């Protein structure tokens, strides 16, 4: 009995290899498949319930399929695995065009077979972005039965959900009636696209306004520049009037060989693919907007319409496209009776808030709107967060260290910015719970403010040690000039020989000493700060900027003074120390990049503080 089981196991292994092998055309492999089929037929050979036909379909093994075809029945091809997928499902999923055609020659009605989720091979092909296979299956018979699965999602939903936007554009052109089809959650394809933030540039890291969003600012800046320089691979082209289907098609632009070679690098390829996806997603969004039925969403608050969805997910391009085409939709309210200005204020969306104030005609009404709980826009501006992260009060317990400082700084700046755009009569409005906006701000930011105070004090203590050390080193170095002093006059011996170089050394040491002392004074002021919320608006950021700049100059001048001292002692005339100069320059460059990376968020905040304070004309809503 045991030998019998072992023999069957070896036969299954051999058949699996033959079905999966690229050399399946070899007579020996074909014979193995024929023998296995005679013995086992459609019996499962793995714990997924896959048969030998499934593996032939997955690997596109047409030769192996042909050798079994005379002995195949329609019932064999209808056999599904544990997920209910037939061999046609698997061939469609992996884009095996020849295998799909071969199966359909035997029985076309296999396109109607559904798996456990109600997915037909056509749906599977759409979800996998296999346009050629999708076209073949759609030409067989395209009906409501093959378009939807059990949860009501159509093939258009599937392409959007799986980011297959090129195929989605093709489906919209061929079957425009699918645009307004809703699934069991009452979501259309456009509703779903409005939640796909990473499919648009505004949700990526490739925006100059989003510099500081990633852990490495220099790398993000380089990637953003590269993103801007990469040429689009796709462009829109209107279908001509003599064609049966009016709409938009996507034309693939041919690239030069040198461009293909450069973008073949995995790092650049990832940036290129992201940009092309953003282009296709925006084209698809425009096409869906052309055919979208807004009358449904205007009276239904159960499912937010695409404008609300895009605003909540900070997809700025989609919001702009919607408002440019349908400006009246700016009056849309969500299930909580909030307009999109409320949402922009809550998520600290700088671009959207400024865009609405500049482009919307009814800005005064929007600024004065109050939701069903009595909250004004200022109440929503009191939420914790930064422009780089979704504002929320649900995760403040995880806020710690330096991030809490940035959250407090941005929280106060954003709150004041929203406040000065509103009419003064709205500043003290209480919501249904009896809280003013400022009270909610203090309540939401209490934990963050305490964390920020602890972080600032700890960092200032650590930096104070460094500045004290630099101060001591430079003070001592001033009285230990290279070459020593003359006993008779007390002047430096090298003063007559290299006077200019010696004075440069004294300048570097003096500048380093002054900068370190200045840093110590600034850091000591942190210890006396009361850390009120308003301190994070101007006072603390300016002190942090001063400390950052002064400690940088103290360190830089100390290093330059060291190099100048070595120069005075003719160390660099020795040809064996050329590597020292290269090492110092390389280390200095790397340390500067690290310093820029660490301090950029503070300088970014100061830029917007100055911009909002001096270059913005506030538009107070009328009452």
Automatic annotation (TrEMBL):
Secreted as UniProt keyword: no
PROSITE patterns to which the protein is assigned, alphabetical: ANK_REP_REGION, ANK_REPEAT
Protein name: Uncharacterized protein LOC107030529 isoform X1
Superkingdom, taxonomy of origin: Eukaryota
SUPFAM superfamilies referenced in this protein's UniProt entry, alphabetically: Ankyrin repeat (SSF48403)
Pfam families found in the cross-reference section: Ank_2, PGG
Ranges for the ANK repeats: 83-115
């Amino acid at each position: 009995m045991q030998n019998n089981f072992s023999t069957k196991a070896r036969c299954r292994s051999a058949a699996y290899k033959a079905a999966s092998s690229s050399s399946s055309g070899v007579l020996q492999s074909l014979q193995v498949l024929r023998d296995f089929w005679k013995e086992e037929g459609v019996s499962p050979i793995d714990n997924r319930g896959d048969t030998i036909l499934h593996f032939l379909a997955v690997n596109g093994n047409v030769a192996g399929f042909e050798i079994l075809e005379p002995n195949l029945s329609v019932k064999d091809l209808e056999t599904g695995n544990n997920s209910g997928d037939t061999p046609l499902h698997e061939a469609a999923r992996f884009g095996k065009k020849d295998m799909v055609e071969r199966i359909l020659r035997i029985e076309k009605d296999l396109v109607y077979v559904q798996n456990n989720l109600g997915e037909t091979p056509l749906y599977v092909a759409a979800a996998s972005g296999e346009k050629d296979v999708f076209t073949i299956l759609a030409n067989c018979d395209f009906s409501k039965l093959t378009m939807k699965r059990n949860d009501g999602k159509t093939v258009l939903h599937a392409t959007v959900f799986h980011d297959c936007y090129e195929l989605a554009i093709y489906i919209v052109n061929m079957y425009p009636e699918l645009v307004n089809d809703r699934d069991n959650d009452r979501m259309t394809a456009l509703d779903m696209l409005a939640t796909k933030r990473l499919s648009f540039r505004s949700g990526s890291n490739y925006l100059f306004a989003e510099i500081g969003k990633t852990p490495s600012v220099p790398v993000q800046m380089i990637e953003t520049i590269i993103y801007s320089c990469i040429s689009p691979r796709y462009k829109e082209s209107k279908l001509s009037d003599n064609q049966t289907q009016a709409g938009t098609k996507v034309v693939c632009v041919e690239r030069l060989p040198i461009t293909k070679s450069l973008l073949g690098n995995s790092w650049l390829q990832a940036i290129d693919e992201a940009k092309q996806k953003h282009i296709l997603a925006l084209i698809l969004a425009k096409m869906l907007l052309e055919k979208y039925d807004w009358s449904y969403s205007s009276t239904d608050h159960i499912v937010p319409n695409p404008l609300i969805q895009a605003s909540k997910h900070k997809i700025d391009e989609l919001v702009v496209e919607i408002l440019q085409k349908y400006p009246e939709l700016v009056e849309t309210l969500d299930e909580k009776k909030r307009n999109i200005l409320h949402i922009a204020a809550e998520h600290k969306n700088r671009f959207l808030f400024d865009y609405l104030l500049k482009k919307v005609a009814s800005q005064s009404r929007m600024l004065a709107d109050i939701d069903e709980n009595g909250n004004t826009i200022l109440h929503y501006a009191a939420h914790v967060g930064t422009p780089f992260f979704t504002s929320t009060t649900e995760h403040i317990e995880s806020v710690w260290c330096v991030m809490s400082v940035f959250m407090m700084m941005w929280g106060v700046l954003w709150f004041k910015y929203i406040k000065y755009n509103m009419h003064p009569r709205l500043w003290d409005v209480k919501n249904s719970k009896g809280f003013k906006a400022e009270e909610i701000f203090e309540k939401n930011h209490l934990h963050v403010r305490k964390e920020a105070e602890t972080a600032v004090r700890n960092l200032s203590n650590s930096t104070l040690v460094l500045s004290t050390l630099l101060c001591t080193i430079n003070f001592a170095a001033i009285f230990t000039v290279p070459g020593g002093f003359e006993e008779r006059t007390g002047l430096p011996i090298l003063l007559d020989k290299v006077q200019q170089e010696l004075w440069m050394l004294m300048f570097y040491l003096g500048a380093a000493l002054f900068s370190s002392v200045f840093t110590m004074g600034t850091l000591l002021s942190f210890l006396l700060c009361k850390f009120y919320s308003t301190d994070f608006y101007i006072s603390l950021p300016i002190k942090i900027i001063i400390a950052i700049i002064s400690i940088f100059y103290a360190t830089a001048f100390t290093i330059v003074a060291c190099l100048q001292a070595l120069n005075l002692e003719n160390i660099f005339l020795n040809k064996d120390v050329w590597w020292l100069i290269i090492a110092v320059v390389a280390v200095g460059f790397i340390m500067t990049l690290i310093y820029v990376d660490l301090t950029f968020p503070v300088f970014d905040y100061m830029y917007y503080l100055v911009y909002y304070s001096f270059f913005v004309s506030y538009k107070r809503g009328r009452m």
